[in-house]
Prior knowledge:
The protein is built from 9 helices and 8 strands. It is α/β, with parallel strands linked by helices. It has one domain (9-243): TIM Barrel (Alpha-Beta Barrel). A 6-stranded parallel sheet has the order 2-3-4-5-6-7. It has a two-stranded parallel sheet with strand order 1-8. The mean pLDDT is 94. Its cofactor is pyridoxal 5'-phosphate.
Amino acid sequence: MAFTTANTVEEFRRNLDDVQRRIDAAAMRAGRDPQSIRLQPVSKTVSEERIRNAIAAGCTRLGENKVQEAKWKHAALLDTGVEWSIIGHLQRNKAKDVVAFASEFHALDSLRLAEALDRRLQAAGRSLDVYVQVNTSGEESKYGIDPDDLPELLMSLRGLDSLNVRGLMTLAIFTDDQEAVRRCFQILRRLRDEMRDLDPELVGLGELSMGMSGDFETAIEEGADVVRVGQSIFGARPTPDSDYWPTAAH
């Protein structure tokens, strides 16, 4: 898939409009309200100057995989008022950094990490919206909780008052097999529905954070409420996905 690189405010507006048109079309195909789907722009590897133009074009919340990268961007762009979502794997010793500036965390995958975040949040007197990451592809190397362990983790999160569970998140398998990708999204939707049947409060709003530049239309067709889109807005990245979506094997 070819991605058009944006540098100017006008170029960012064009890319954002194009992505929004694709979101709307996918929602209409699925009989869904396009307004119910949130676009989460992802600015990893993008320079401060280009991010400022993206913000001027309408980006009000940006997503980053690496906490250290997000940390310096937050400091550099403090004057813009942009909000930050951390969407990549987090080590427990970086919990304090997320608590310091993030509005959302999309990759909660263990109780120990949840407890570390909760301690920091309690000390800071604030709360954090989180999505529980589930490994729907069955790849042993990929981060995310095993679907069978999801009920226990969600029940344990009830005791952590500073974490607001909004729903579930997944990364589809990296493959050209679109049906295999679609199955990952279907699994997450099924898990959300099963958790609601078990106890509606377990998954909060029950939102599904799934779909990236290469597959967000399929994700919307399968129920995505939040799509995390980077390259379709900013352009092709100079580094491979493996640099920004580390596996458990790493």
